[in-house]
Sequence to fold (362 residues):
Amino acid sequence: MSIENLARQNVRDLTPYQSARRLGGSGDVWLNANEYPLAPDFQPAAANLNRYPECQPAQVIARYAEYADVSPDQVLVSRGADESIELLIRAFCEPGKDAVLYCPPTYGMYGVSAETFGVEHRTVQTTAAWQLDLPAIAANLDGVKLIYVCSPNNPTGNLLDPDSLRALLEMAKGKAIVAVDEAYIEFCPQASVAGWLSDYPHLAILRTLSKAFALAGLRCGFTLANPDLIALLLKVIAPYPLSSPVADIAAQALSAEGLRLMRQRVGEIAGNRLWLQQALEACDCVEQVFTSDSNYLLVRFTAASNVFKTLWDQGIILRDQNKQPGLSGCLRITIGTQDECQRVIDALRPLPGTTTTRQEPL
Fold:
């Protein structure tokens, strides 16, 4: 019997999440993973690496709780928000019995994680305005234990309507956990639902240091929830999720100075995003630039595959979103430095628009 035949059937059939690094490329302008374009200057302090770290580093928990305006017993730290996605499935979903639900176009790891654990993944596509289709969600809730929504949503960049989020939470009471993915919330902090935790015991909020904190390589994320929910996640998390150097750098990033630098980055990205949006709208090959509350722009192009390849060949790597529902002709562009944004525009300006190029089938 082959090794593959020994594996679980759902793993044999699984298509893994195609991360930016898995897709590869050989460019020098990386605008495909929603990373901050410049490395921060953090140095881990000397640590006793012969000793295991704390499961939940106290200083990191305390500083994140203060930053998020919650209590420390409402915070769990993990290996990126991706681990939070999996912890919720492990804690709440019975393989072969329960289902998770999410609303594409959105982050692909919700479905991949469910599939990995042998849990049904059910989708309800968003409306044409990329908002929650509440009647369709209500019609598909039977057997659902966990609902993932993303706001600002990746890859569309829009915020979900808060009234719809409250309606979803009311709909799910006593039935399912609602996980609101706030990976990009630093770019629109006023839209966070962290202040709703006292109203909804079944609310979980996913956060990360990968975006505005410029620490994608650190792999440090957080779950915000009420203490009862956090206690369940602590039962299924690995014994030592964060290494000592990771915890040390995370604590530095969450210091007063670290938060000041993060907010400075957010301001820079917002300025570059506005500049790039206006410059894109002046390019012939661009059909539409969608409004964004995040560190990326979703753009619909004439002949998108040609645009993608043209920029790829010039070392500018974007993220193709053509296969997502409703996103035909769309590419996602991470907001880089001013120079990187200028290179994107310089590469796009010579490309023809709809008046001279027939729309390709997508």
About this structure: The CA atoms of residues 177 and 202 lie 5 Å apart. DSSP finds 13 helices and 13 strands in the chain. Residues 256-281 form the longest helix (26 residues).
